[in-house]
Amino acid sequence: MAALNDEQLDEIRRHLDEGMTPDAIADYLGRVADLDLLDIVTIRSAAVALSRGETP
């Protein structure tokens, strides 16, 4: 997973809106989709950026 698409970013936003932390989102999606560590780091980084109102 090189970059996240709009659908994936929207899913992260939904989880943030539900009150999940960036770490919890990355862990959850990593387990559900059986992702490798690099993909989990990508998701966590995007979630952190989105939680700060930044563009991932």
Annotate the secondary structure layout.
Layout: H1 6-17, H2 22-32, H3 37-51
Short description:
The chain is mainly alpha-helical and 56 residues long.
- Helix-strand category: mainly alpha
Q: Helical amount among residues, as a percent range?
A: 55-70%
Beta-strand residue fraction:
under 5%
How is the biggest beta sheet arranged?
A: none
- Give start-end ranges of low-pLDDT stretches: none
Write down the overall geometry.
globular
Characterise the protein shown here.
- This protein is an all-alpha fold and 56 residues long.
- It has helices at 6-17, 22-32, 37-51.
- It has one domain.
- 68% of the residues lie in helices and 0% in strands.
- Helix 1 (6-17) packs across helix 3 (37-51) and helix 2 runs antiparallel to helix 3 (37-51).
- The two termini are 14 Å apart.
